[in-house]
Design brief:
The complex is a heterodimer.
Chain A (H helix, E strand, L loop, with lengths): L3 E2 L5 E4 L4 E7 L6 E7 L6 E6 L3 E5 L2 E6 L4 E6 L8 E8 L4 E3 L3 E6 L1
Parallel strand pairs in A: 2-11
Antiparallel strand pairs in A: 1-3, 3-8, 4-5, 4-9, 6-7, 7-8, 9-10, 9-11
Chain B lengths: L3 E4 L2 E4 L5 E7 L5 E7 L5 E8 L2 E5 L6 E7 L2 E6 L8 E8 L12 E2 L3 E5 L1
Parallel strand pairs in B: 2-11
Antiparallel strand pairs in B: 1-3, 3-8, 4-5, 4-9, 5-6, 7-8, 9-10, 9-11
Classes of the chains: A mainly beta, B mainly beta.
Chain lengths: ~110, ~120
Amino acid sequence: QKEVEQNSGPLSVPEGAIASLNCTYSDRGSQSFFWYRQYSGKSPELIMFIYSNGDKEDGRFTAQLNKASQYVSLLIRDSQPSDSATYLCAVKGSYIPTFGRGTSLIVHP
Amino acid sequence: DTAVSQTPKYLVTQMGNDKSIKCEQNLGHDTMYWYKQDSKKFLKIMFSYNNKELIINETVPNRFSPKSPDKAHLNLHINSLELGDSAVYFCASSQASGLAGVGNEQFFGPGTRLTVL
Protein backbone atom coordinates (compact mmCIF):
# COMPACT_ATOMS: atom_id res chain seq x y z
CA GLN A 1 0.00 0.00 0.00
CA LYS A 2 1.54 3.24 -1.14
CA GLU A 3 1.16 5.88 1.54
CA VAL A 4 1.60 9.61 1.78
CA GLU A 5 1.68 10.98 5.31
CA GLN A 6 1.02 14.52 6.44
CA ASN A 7 0.43 16.02 9.86
CA SER A 8 -3.24 17.00 9.86
CA GLY A 9 -2.60 20.10 11.97
CA PRO A 10 -3.86 22.67 12.32
CA LEU A 11 -0.57 24.47 11.91
CA SER A 12 -1.00 27.99 13.24
CA VAL A 13 1.49 30.73 12.31
CA PRO A 14 1.40 34.51 12.68
CA GLU A 15 1.13 36.72 9.63
CA GLY A 16 4.55 37.35 8.08
CA ALA A 17 6.10 34.16 9.45
CA ILE A 18 7.38 31.15 7.52
CA ALA A 19 5.00 28.19 7.39
CA SER A 20 6.64 24.79 6.97
CA LEU A 21 4.53 21.88 5.73
CA ASN A 22 5.92 18.38 5.60
CA CYS A 23 5.11 15.17 3.76
CA THR A 24 6.63 11.69 3.76
CA TYR A 25 5.92 8.91 1.30
CA SER A 26 6.44 5.17 1.25
CA ASP A 27 6.99 4.36 -2.44
CA ARG A 28 10.69 4.69 -3.29
CA GLY A 29 9.79 4.58 -6.98
CA SER A 30 7.92 7.88 -6.75
CA GLN A 31 9.15 10.43 -9.24
CA SER A 32 6.66 13.31 -9.27
CA PHE A 33 5.70 15.39 -6.26
CA PHE A 34 3.01 18.03 -6.02
CA TRP A 35 1.59 20.49 -3.53
CA TYR A 36 -2.04 21.55 -3.83
CA ARG A 37 -3.93 24.15 -1.84
CA GLN A 38 -7.60 23.55 -1.06
CA TYR A 39 -9.82 26.21 0.44
CA SER A 40 -12.91 25.01 2.30
CA GLY A 41 -15.62 24.01 -0.15
CA LYS A 42 -13.36 24.48 -3.17
CA SER A 43 -11.34 22.20 -5.42
CA PRO A 44 -7.59 21.52 -5.04
CA GLU A 45 -5.41 24.07 -6.81
CA LEU A 46 -1.86 23.25 -7.91
CA ILE A 47 0.78 25.38 -6.19
CA MET A 48 4.07 23.66 -6.89
CA PHE A 49 5.53 20.56 -8.46
CA ILE A 50 9.01 19.17 -8.10
CA TYR A 51 10.74 16.23 -9.76
CA SER A 52 14.41 16.54 -8.74
CA ASN A 53 16.17 16.51 -5.38
CA GLY A 54 16.76 19.93 -3.92
CA ASP A 55 14.81 23.14 -3.71
CA LYS A 56 12.46 24.77 -6.16
CA GLU A 57 11.28 28.33 -5.57
CA ASP A 58 8.25 30.13 -6.99
CA GLY A 59 7.46 33.49 -5.43
CA ARG A 60 6.77 33.01 -1.72
CA PHE A 61 6.69 29.21 -2.09
CA THR A 62 9.63 26.81 -1.93
CA ALA A 63 9.30 23.06 -2.42
CA GLN A 64 12.06 20.84 -1.06
CA LEU A 65 12.58 17.23 -2.10
CA ASN A 66 14.82 14.61 -0.52
CA LYS A 67 14.30 11.27 -2.25
CA ALA A 68 16.79 9.44 -0.02
CA SER A 69 14.73 10.38 3.05
CA GLN A 70 11.43 10.09 1.12
CA TYR A 71 10.49 13.54 2.26
CA VAL A 72 9.00 16.56 0.53
CA SER A 73 8.19 19.88 2.13
CA LEU A 74 6.61 23.21 1.28
CA LEU A 75 7.77 26.49 2.78
CA ILE A 76 5.57 29.56 2.59
CA ARG A 77 7.42 32.78 3.31
CA ASP A 78 5.72 35.96 4.53
CA SER A 79 2.54 34.00 5.30
CA GLN A 80 -0.72 35.86 4.73
CA PRO A 81 -4.20 35.21 6.16
CA SER A 82 -5.23 34.34 2.59
CA ASP A 83 -2.83 31.37 2.77
CA SER A 84 -5.11 29.77 5.37
CA ALA A 85 -6.25 26.54 3.71
CA THR A 86 -5.58 22.81 3.62
CA TYR A 87 -2.38 21.85 1.80
CA LEU A 88 -2.36 18.49 0.07
CA CYS A 89 0.81 16.63 -0.81
CA ALA A 90 0.54 14.32 -3.83
CA VAL A 91 3.03 11.74 -5.01
CA LYS A 92 3.13 9.87 -8.31
CA GLY A 93 5.16 6.75 -8.94
CA SER A 94 3.44 4.66 -11.55
CA TYR A 95 0.25 5.89 -13.17
CA ILE A 96 -1.49 6.28 -9.82
CA PRO A 97 -1.27 9.60 -7.98
CA THR A 98 -1.60 9.27 -4.20
CA PHE A 99 -2.69 12.15 -2.00
CA GLY A 100 -1.99 12.75 1.66
CA ARG A 101 -4.83 13.73 3.96
CA GLY A 102 -3.65 17.32 4.01
CA THR A 103 -2.38 19.79 6.61
CA SER A 104 -4.63 22.59 7.73
CA LEU A 105 -2.78 25.92 7.88
CA ILE A 106 -4.09 28.90 9.81
CA VAL A 107 -2.35 32.25 9.40
CA HIS A 108 -3.54 34.68 12.08
CA PRO A 109 -3.17 38.47 11.81
CA ASP B 1 -13.34 29.76 -20.39
CA THR B 2 -13.39 27.26 -17.50
CA ALA B 3 -10.58 24.72 -17.84
CA VAL B 4 -12.25 21.70 -16.19
CA SER B 5 -16.00 21.83 -15.69
CA GLN B 6 -18.41 19.45 -13.99
CA THR B 7 -22.17 19.19 -13.88
CA PRO B 8 -24.12 19.18 -11.72
CA LYS B 9 -22.49 21.07 -8.84
CA TYR B 10 -24.90 19.58 -6.32
CA LEU B 11 -26.79 16.30 -6.53
CA VAL B 12 -29.28 15.15 -3.89
CA THR B 13 -30.95 11.80 -4.47
CA GLN B 14 -32.52 8.79 -2.78
CA MET B 15 -30.84 5.48 -2.06
CA GLY B 16 -31.18 3.04 -4.93
CA ASN B 17 -31.35 5.66 -7.66
CA ASP B 18 -28.99 5.89 -10.64
CA LYS B 19 -27.22 9.17 -11.39
CA SER B 20 -24.55 10.58 -13.68
CA ILE B 21 -21.94 13.31 -13.33
CA LYS B 22 -20.41 14.90 -16.40
CA CYS B 23 -16.93 16.35 -16.84
CA GLU B 24 -15.35 18.28 -19.67
CA GLN B 25 -11.90 19.82 -20.08
CA ASN B 26 -10.84 22.36 -22.68
CA LEU B 27 -7.11 22.23 -21.91
CA GLY B 28 -6.31 19.75 -24.67
CA HIS B 29 -5.11 17.24 -22.08
CA ASP B 30 -4.85 13.53 -22.84
CA THR B 31 -5.59 12.19 -19.35
CA MET B 32 -8.63 12.60 -17.15
CA TYR B 33 -9.41 11.37 -13.62
CA TRP B 34 -12.23 10.88 -11.16
CA TYR B 35 -11.56 11.37 -7.45
CA LYS B 36 -13.76 10.91 -4.39
CA GLN B 37 -13.24 13.18 -1.37
CA ASP B 38 -14.94 11.92 1.75
CA SER B 39 -16.14 13.82 4.81
CA LYS B 40 -12.64 13.63 6.29
CA LYS B 41 -11.28 15.36 3.18
CA PHE B 42 -9.32 12.30 2.01
CA LEU B 43 -8.91 12.55 -1.76
CA LYS B 44 -8.81 9.11 -3.35
CA ILE B 45 -8.46 8.29 -7.03
CA MET B 46 -11.18 6.15 -8.59
CA PHE B 47 -10.50 6.04 -12.32
CA SER B 48 -8.24 7.48 -14.97
CA TYR B 49 -8.52 7.52 -18.75
CA ASN B 50 -5.76 8.33 -21.19
CA ASN B 51 -7.03 9.30 -24.62
CA LYS B 52 -10.34 7.44 -24.04
CA GLU B 53 -8.63 4.31 -22.70
CA LEU B 54 -9.05 3.19 -19.07
CA ILE B 55 -5.66 3.08 -17.32
CA ILE B 56 -6.57 3.22 -13.63
CA ASN B 57 -9.43 1.42 -11.90
CA GLU B 58 -8.87 1.56 -8.17
CA THR B 59 -10.98 -1.08 -6.38
CA VAL B 60 -14.17 0.84 -6.95
CA PRO B 61 -17.51 -1.04 -6.73
CA ASN B 62 -18.80 -1.96 -10.16
CA ARG B 63 -21.85 0.23 -9.48
CA PHE B 64 -19.52 3.01 -10.65
CA SER B 65 -18.94 3.07 -14.40
CA PRO B 66 -16.87 5.73 -16.13
CA LYS B 67 -17.31 6.55 -19.78
CA SER B 68 -15.06 8.61 -22.01
CA PRO B 69 -16.68 9.40 -25.38
CA ASP B 70 -13.65 11.47 -26.37
CA LYS B 71 -10.50 12.68 -24.66
CA ALA B 72 -12.15 15.95 -23.57
CA HIS B 73 -14.97 14.24 -21.68
CA LEU B 74 -15.11 11.77 -18.81
CA ASN B 75 -18.48 10.98 -17.29
CA LEU B 76 -19.27 8.96 -14.18
CA HIS B 77 -22.43 6.88 -13.87
CA ILE B 78 -23.43 5.45 -10.50
CA ASN B 79 -26.04 2.71 -10.16
CA SER B 80 -28.02 1.79 -7.06
CA LEU B 81 -26.73 4.67 -4.96
CA GLU B 82 -25.88 3.94 -1.31
CA LEU B 83 -25.55 6.22 1.72
CA GLY B 84 -21.78 5.69 1.68
CA ASP B 85 -21.55 7.20 -1.79
CA SER B 86 -22.21 10.63 -0.31
CA ALA B 87 -19.06 12.67 -0.94
CA VAL B 88 -17.60 15.30 -3.22
CA TYR B 89 -16.53 13.92 -6.58
CA PHE B 90 -13.77 15.77 -8.42
CA CYS B 91 -12.84 15.44 -12.04
CA ALA B 92 -9.27 16.34 -13.02
CA SER B 93 -7.08 16.33 -16.09
CA SER B 94 -3.38 16.33 -16.92
CA GLN B 95 -1.39 16.51 -20.12
CA ALA B 96 0.47 13.26 -19.46
CA SER B 97 -0.07 10.07 -17.51
CA GLY B 98 3.43 8.68 -17.38
CA LEU B 99 5.87 8.15 -14.61
CA ALA B 100 7.38 11.54 -14.20
CA GLY B 101 8.14 14.88 -15.67
CA VAL B 102 6.36 17.97 -16.80
CA GLY B 103 2.80 17.36 -17.82
CA ASN B 104 1.77 15.26 -14.85
CA GLU B 105 0.33 18.20 -12.97
CA GLN B 106 -3.40 17.79 -12.47
CA PHE B 107 -6.05 20.47 -12.81
CA PHE B 108 -9.26 19.92 -10.92
CA GLY B 109 -12.86 20.75 -11.69
CA PRO B 110 -15.08 22.51 -9.13
CA GLY B 111 -16.48 19.26 -7.73
CA THR B 112 -19.92 17.67 -7.47
CA ARG B 113 -21.34 17.32 -3.97
CA LEU B 114 -23.41 14.14 -3.94
CA THR B 115 -25.81 13.56 -1.06
CA VAL B 116 -27.63 10.24 -0.85
CA LEU B 117 -30.66 10.23 1.47
